[in-house]
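cron nightly-structures :: item 1 of 1
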Amino acid sequence: MFNQLLVKMIPLMPKSLVWAVGKRYIAGLKIEDAVKYTKAFQELGGGTTIDVLGEFVSEKERAIKERDASSFVIDTIAREQLPSYLSIKPTAQGLGIDTEFAYENVKMLVAQAKKMGQRCRIDMEDSPYTDKTLDLYRKLQDEGYDNVGIVLQAKLKRTYTDIQSILKYKPNIRICKGIYIEPAEIAYTKKEDIRSNWMKCLQLIAENIPNGAYPAIATHDEEQLQFAEKLIKDNGFKKEQYQFEMLLGVREERRNRLLKEGHNVTIYVPFGEDWYGYSTRRMKENPEVAMHVFKAMFGIGQ
């Protein structure tokens, strides 16, 4: 009840306080900020995936602008020789406007990346776009773009079946819990159920590593991390066969320990002028984040 009240208060929160919380998880406003974080993490032996902030675009002109900004990220990765790849938000490319229009935008980015020897990943957004996003991925794979991966969310009850449906593509799958609030009819709502399904889904991807599947193990949950580490050790997987993925600014000590233990680790580095929209949307989707801003407003816990 209190969390829902916080959500209603979000538009009244000063931008400075939203930024005070959000800046830990956002590289900055410019591509140069993402490059800085990538090079710093490269020195530790890790890599990044760069995301241009912006989603749920409703105008084609804005979608084209978002596409061009993502294209510049690909150029920058090549020019700076960064250990990085582009994350693509389908709705930023116009998926909520026109499916074919969005496909052509995403295809242009994936083709550009392939030409430069890079890969990309299509992010998964909330459930109204699940089928459309999977269709984008399948169509790209069918056209020979094997440098594109996808994200699937363990929160959704359908995800295990979705993994099974794309195994023929030798998929590179980032398996995460999922941040979006979804109806109980289609999603698990209890943390233990989401965690259990995440482990089940990771197990399925891992079983198919010998067939070409590649898990991007996205979690900060200690129980899940230990499950993944045991799975890797018990099966003797080589570090080239998987990677861990974590968010910028989250559990950095644990992240660095994974690196020191010899695992590949990638951090998610978002940047862009849409930081406020991104931050407030995340608060609405996850009221626990809004609580951090509330505490900052009143100096609680400081």
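cron nightly-structures :: done
The longest helix spans residues 60-80.
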